[in-house]
Amino acid sequence: MSLPLPVLHILVALADGDRHGYAIMQEVAARTDGAVRLGPGTLYGSIKRMLHDGLIEELDERPDSDEDDVRRRYYRITPRGRTLAREEIGRLAALVRHARAAGLTPKTG
Amino acid sequence: MNAFDRLYRILLRLYPAEFRDEYGREMTQLLRDRSLHEPRMRVYADVARDLIATVPKEQSRVLLNDLRYAVRMIRRTPGFSAAVVLTVALAIAANTAMFSVVNAVLLRPLPFGNPSRLVQVAEKNDRLNLPNFGASVLNFVSWREQTHAFEQLAAIGFASFNLSGDGGEPEQLVGNRISPALLNVLGIAPVAGRNFTDAEENPGAPAVAMIGERVWARRFGRDPSIVGRSITINGARTTVVGIAPAALNLFSGGDVYVPLTIDPAKEIRLNHVIFVTGRLKPDVTIQAAQAECDTVAAAMGRTYPEIRDWGIRLLSFFDTFVSAQLETSLLVLLAAVGFVLLIACANIANLLLARATAREKEIAVRTALGASRTRLLHQLLVESVTLSAIGGAAGIVAAIWAVRVINASLPPNLLPIPDVHIDATVLIFAVGLTLATGLVFGIAPASYAARTDVSEMLKTTARGAGRGRVRLRSGLAAAELALATVLLIGAGLLIQTFVNLQRARLGFETKGLLTFQLAPPTAAYPLTDRAPLFYRALLDSLQAVPGVRSAAVSSGIPFGQGNYTTSPVVTSGPSALPPDTPVPIDWRIVSPGYFRTMSIPLLRGRDFSDRDGPNAPLVTIVSQATARKFWGDMDPIGRTLHRNADSRAVTVVGVVGDVRSTTLNQESPALYYPMAARVWPLMDVVVRTDSSPEALLPMVRQKVRELDAGLPVATVRTMDEWVSNSATQPRLSAALVGVFAAVAVLIAAIGIYGVLAYSVNQRTREIGLRIALGARADGVVRLIVKEGMAVSIAGIVAGVVTAMILGRAVSSLVYGIRPDDPLTFAAVGVLLAVVALAACSLPARRAARVDPMVALREE
Fold first, then answer.
1. Chain A CB contacts of B39 below 8 Å
2. In the predicted model, is pLDDT for residue B465 greater than 60?
3. d(CA B458, CA B394)
4. Which of B1, B137, B272, B808 could form a disulfide with B5 if both were Cys (CB 3.0 to 4.6 A apart)?
5. DSSP 8-class letter at B167
6. Is the pLDDT of residue A109 over 80?
7. Contact A39 B34 (CB under 8 A)
8. What residue spans of A32-66 are helical by DSSP H?
9. Residue numbers of A between 18 and 77 with CB closer than 8 Å to B
10. A36 → chain B, closest CA residue
11. CA of B4, closest CA in chain A: separation in Å?
12. Which helix (H) or strand (E) holds B313?
């Protein structure tokens, strides 16, 4: 099973720390130099299904609760999410190797 | 909170409720955060893109879930689901098939270019009460010169042609003489070859013809090389210049077309023999064109005094080709079949309401688990629409098959179109109707089920709850009966109409009559000498055949396809009418012995004889109605009359009985002229036999061949077939509405039974208690029957009232009976009450058998 691109982005964004929705969006945008900006529907649609599939979980306690709005929900990657993300990244890396071997290199700028 | 936030909150409603409830706040917050850090326009664009991408996705996920759940529920109760699906399939199939006919006849444009601009240009004569009459060739020529409202005018004449000389069997075909402009006016083009040229309208032009697509396929195997070849038409070598498109046979079912040649020297203005059509100029309305035609007609009346009473009437092609009666019949049938669907919907709703009780537990559990009311309603509607969609799909397949049967089995000429198709309009109608059906039968049960109060449910058992639901179910059952009453009354009226038509006194005996048509070419058989002699020889030879009692010839037998014409006739001398009053009368040419052969009684005077030839005094035989009209109680024999267009006096030599000749419900006065003086190019031959008419046919063919081997025997029918064909439309209407009504009554009876059985089930405890307290079995029966009959009588009364209101709509379709015939209404009311009583008695008897001990222990 290959993961949809927004799901993979969210998993990567959560890989090094728990975040709320806006933070996930910002993280993804920062990592992709603003190329990928997840809209609210895409973000929460993906989150809903990732929760259902057990790739992430919603946190009961709010980290940094003093400095942040209590209403925000925080999400954490699950071991299963981590495994699936790793597998997917592996597949993508292999694909990139094959592409390079075939002379298909991305334009760098 | 700014305007954008508020707008976004409204847009969030596009998402499924669950999703919105769960994440709506977060999503709004996310946007607020972004608007603080990013350019507004970029956020707006992102949100728009995001909505378009994710709303359908989230919605379809929910729908898919509901569908899965619906399919699971449908499969859990296979018997119930099958009953619903089957009911919907039948109702949708019937509605779709019926609508496809309505669509083909009333909605689809005629197969011409921009048909809404086409009109029929008819002649009218208010004094003679002729609102829509044929045109004369000379008037057509004048109109063509003097009017400006039309792009072009074209004329169509009617004729029959003998086709031979191409190696095949000689064949007689109907066809038309047409103006070269006709195809242009209609906006159609030849399938192959060319159209006629304007020069081919002149007398003496080389003989050319087009053949219709149908005969091109049947006789020439669609061989394109037929164009340019010559064939023999009516004995003359004629070049086939083109293949005419099928649309052209709307006018007379024609297969052969030749140019309508115009020789003004040979025409008179009062000879109304052609059909004229015109295409209105783009900016001209039919009213404006009519106004111009009125002016032109008035001017022509001053120039040519003989036509001063005649005017021009423009009719849209729809009015020309779709009779008001056909339109009414189709709409009544569509309404009837729609009623069946409504009854089916009410019945399914009733079944679902009953089942909603059984599902109360399931619903309560789902509500307790957090499903909202909207969510449940949505879910239940998806379930009912899924049920109806399965039924609808089956119904559409059945309708495709039914339309094939309709095309194969409907007699030709019943509908003014070659065949019925299931096109996009019909499919959209069927799909829309299916979805609407699912919503209609699902909405009441679903909203009731979704309203189920959880705490109420947990406190009490199902018993005693849902009085409102019982009322709703009773209302539905009453509505079903009301609709069934309307349908049954309609069926009663139409069936009696059909029976009345069958009983109508035709004025002649149909049994044992064989009829066929002959058209000896006029070049070889001039109409005033060789042709009458040919028919005399034929009749003598046919009469010699064993089994033939007598044989005769007529220019148009009753209910046949022959020529019969209405001409204004005037009497001379004493008359029951004011002097010089022209009266339009149907007339035919008949041979001696025609009245004997048809068993039309000769009431006074004498029959025609062979001595009434072209050089003898002009004589006529009148029908009784004609005699009464012209001369009242005076003796008509020896009196004279003449055609309005011809001053020669004709003496009445006989009076015969009246005959119904075009429609079963109308008696028409008639005049008869002798064959010996003149015949028409196409004549009907009738042969009366003692045995079966069909058995005689080979001998008849043999006799015709002996006289002229090149002469085809055409349109062979028995008189019974002609008469029966003329009643096709009332017979079909009666049969269809009868079937619809029977189905409706059956469903309605099941509806009443279902409601009562449910009610008895609900009240088992109460009934048990009554019995335990000493109520007698017949008392219990009476109690239940009274409940059921109250609902039934309400429904029947509502139906009777509705039928009285709707009766006016069918008044043009009934014959020999009033649309508010009290006997029919009463009989239907009583019949349905009996059916309802029977439906009530089953649950009532079950109630009487309730064992109080069992009923009370159940609690």
1. none
2. no
3. 41
4. B1
5. S
6. no
7. no
8. 40-53
9. 21-22, 25, 37, 39-45, 47-48, 69, 71-73
10. B46
11. 14
12. strand B311-316
Would you say residue B331 has pLDDT above 60? yes
Max mean pLDDT range (A58-67, B419-428, B587-596, B656-665): B587-596
Which residues of chain B make contact with A21, given a CB cutoff of 8 A?
26-27, 29-30
Alpha carbons A109 and B704: distance in angstroms, whole number: 99
Residue B776 has pLDDT above 80, yes or no: yes
Q: CA angle at residue B260 from B257 to B266, to 5 degrees?
A: 145
Q: Are B50 and A47 inside 8 Å of each other by CB? A: no
| Tokens coding B445 | 């049960």
DSSP codes, B536-594: HHHHHHHHTSTTEEEEEEESS-TTSSS--EEEEEEE-SS-SS-TT--EEEEEEEE-TTH
Q: How far is B41 from chain A (nearest CA, A)?
A: 14
Can you say whether the dihedral through the CA atoms of B727, B730, B736, B739 is positive or negative? negative
| DSSP line for B82-102 | HHHHHHHHHHHHHHHHHHHHH
Nearest to A42 among B22, B33, B50 (CB): B50
* Residues of chain B positioned with their CB less than 8 A from the CB of A71: 25, 29
Question: Would you call B256 helix, strand, or coil by DSSP?
Answer: strand
Which tokens go with B651? 């003496």
> What phi-psi label fits residue A17: left (phi over 0), alpha (psi between -120 and 50 degrees) or beta?
left
- Given a cut of 70, whether residue B454 has pLDDT beyond it is no
Q: Which residue does chain B place closest to A73, by CA atoms?
A: B26
Q: What is the pLDDT of residues B382-411, one digit of tens each?
A: 999 999 999 999 999 999 998 998 888 777
Backbone torsions φ then ψ of B139, nearest 5 degrees:
-65, -40
- Give dist(CA B571, CA B116) in Å, integer: 43
CA-nearest of B614, B596, B618 to B688 is B596
Q: What is the ipTM of this complex?
A: 0.83
Rounded Cα gap, residues B244 and B217, in angstroms: 12
For residue B676, give the DSSP letter: T
pLDDT of residue B371: 76
> Is the Cβ pair B30, A21 closer than 8 Å?
yes
**If DSSP codes are grouped into helix, strand and coil, which group holds residue B278?**
strand
- Yes or no, beta carbons of B29 and A71 under 8 Å apart: yes
Q: How far apart (Å, rounded) are the C-alpha atoms in residues B800 and B788?
A: 18
Structure tokens belonging to residue B396: 């559409």
- Checking if the pLDDT of A31 tops 80, the result is yes
Nearest CA in chain A to B32: A22
CA-wise closest residue to B344 among B623, B88, B665: B88
State pLDDT tens for residues B526-542: 888 899 999 999 999 99
Q: What is the pLDDT of residues B621-636, one digit of tens each?
A: 999 999 998 998 889 9
> How many C-beta atoms surround the C-beta of residue B442 within 10 A?
24
Query: Residue B260, CB half-sphere, CA atoms under 13 Å: how many?
Result: 25
The tens digit of pLDDT for each residue in B333-372 reads 899 999 999 999 988 888 888 777 777 777 888 888 777 7
> Is residue B525 predicted with pLDDT exceeding 60?
yes
Which of these, B57, B4, B46, lies nearest to A29 by C-alpha position? B46
